Amino acid sequence: MIKIKKKTAIPLPKQIKEEILKDIREKGIKPGEKILSEETLAEKFGVSRMTVREAIIELINENLLFRVSGKGTFLSENLDKGNGHTKTIIIEVPNLRNFFYYQIISGAEKVFSQNNYNFTIFSERDNSIDEKRYFEKILKEKFSGLFLISAHYTHTNLSILKKIQKEVPIVLIDVKIPGFKTDTVVSDDFKGGFMITEHLIELGHKKILHLAGPVDDSSANERKNGYIEALKKYGITRPIIRTTGWDLENGYYEVKKFFLNNKETKAIFACSDEVAIGAYRALKELRLKVPDEIALTGYANLDINRALEISFTTVDQAPEKMGEIAAKLLIDKIEGKRELEKTEEIKVNTKLIIRNSCGIYKNIIGEKHESSYNRW
C-alpha cells in the first residue's frame, strides 16, 4: 500500500490524481489501455473509493481518461505516451515590453523544447487587474504547470493564485510573493546592489543617487538593501534614494526632478538598465555629461546595452539561466520526480560588468565581484 499524506494542504483527490498518473507512467500504460479499478486503487493508496472516484472524474473531465460502461476506465489519446501527463505550460509575464523577461523566457524555452512541452504566454501589461483576469482564464485552461514571472502587485491576486496551485504545480521567478509557498528562482540582488555601489565608492563617489524601483518589489528591495549595506561598509551614513518603476520613463522623470536642485551628487545607481537609459536621456537634456560629470550604472545587463552610445556598467543576473532552472524545477514536479508539497528557493549568482559609463575603466572583477552558478 502506498501511504498518502493526509496532513498536508494538498487535497487528497489531487494527490491521488498525481499518483494515478505516476502509476500510468511507471507501468508504461498506453493510450486505449485499461487502468486499475477504483477498488484496487483505493486499497493501493489507503483511501476511500469515493476519494479515488473524485480523482478519476477530474482526470476524465480533463480528457486524460475515459470510461466505457461495464468495462472500466481507460487511458486517453490526450495523454503523452512516454510521460503520462499533458504537455502544455502557461507562462505568465508582467510585461513583454521588458527585455529582461524575454531573456528569462528564452532560457525556459530551451528546457521546454528539449522535454517536448508546448507553452502559451500571457502578458498582463503591468496591471494587477489584467493579471487577475488572466489568472481566472488560466483556471479554465487544460495545462500541466504555471511558469510565473511575478511582479510587485501579484500578491494582490494571492487568493486566486492559490486556487491555481491546487490544480497544477507553479514555479515563481524573479519576485517573491509574501504568504505564497512554491518553488522560487531569483537572482542574488542583494549582492548585485552591494557590488555596484561598492564599485562607485571605489571610484571616489560618496553621494550616490539610487533609483530604487517599486517599494513592494522583493528584487528592488534587495538591490536597495545591498546599496545601503555598501554605504555602511565605507562609513557613508546618508543614502540618497528615489522610488521609481522599472521603465525608461521612470528614470527620465526622477533624474530630471532630482538634478534640478541637487548639483553635488555625481553618481547614479539605477535599478535597471531601462531606468538607466531614461536617466541618461534626462542628463543629456540637463547638459550633464556621462561619464565626465556623472557616473551612471544600470542593472540586468540587457542586450540593448550594446546599441547605446555609452554602454552602462551593470550587473548580470543570468536571466537565461534563471529561466532554465525554473523550467526544470517545474517539469520535475509535473513528472513526479519531486514531491508536490516540497518547495525550493534557488538564488542565482550575480556578476558585476564594468564598462565605460563611470569615468574610469579599471578591471576590478575578481573573486569578490564575480561568481558562477552550477546548480544544474
Tell me what the structure shows.
- There is one protein chain.
- The protein is an alpha/beta fold and 376 residues long.
- It contains 11 helices and 14 strands.
- The strands form 4 sheets. The chain has a 6-stranded parallel sheet, with helices on both faces. It has a 4-stranded parallel sheet with strand order 9-8-10-11, with helices on both faces.
List its salient traits:
376 residues; alpha/beta; Arc Repressor Mutant, subunit A; Rossmann fold; 3 domains; 6-stranded parallel beta sheet; 11 helices; 14 strands; 39% helix; disordered C terminus
Backbone shape? elongated
Q: What name does CATH use for the topology of the largest domain?
A: Rossmann fold
Q: Write the element-wise H/E pattern from the N-terminal end onward.
A: HHHEEEHEHEHEEHEHEHEHEEHEE
Report on the biggest sheet: 6 strands, parallel
Looking at CATH, the homologous superfamily of the largest domain is Response regulator
Q: Give the low-confidence spans.
A: 362-376
Spatial strand order of the main sheet: 4-3-5-6-7-13
Class of secondary structure makeup: alpha/beta
User: How many strands?
Assistant: 14
Q: What's the SSE blueprint?
A:
Layout: H1 12-27, H2 38-45, H3 49-61, E1 65-68, E2 72-75, E3 88-93, H4 99-114, E4 118-123, H5 128-139, E5 145-149, H6 158-167, E6 170-173, E7 183-187, H7 189-202, E8 208-211, H8 218-233, E9 240-242, H9 248-261, E10 267-270, H10 273-285, E11 295-297, E12 314-316, H11 319-334, E13 345-348, E14 351-353
Parallel strand pairs: 3-4, 3-5, 5-6, 6-7, 7-13, 8-9, 8-10, 10-11
Antiparallel strand pairs: 1-2, 12-14
Helix pairs in contact: 1-3, 2-3, 4-11, 5-6, 7-8, 9-10
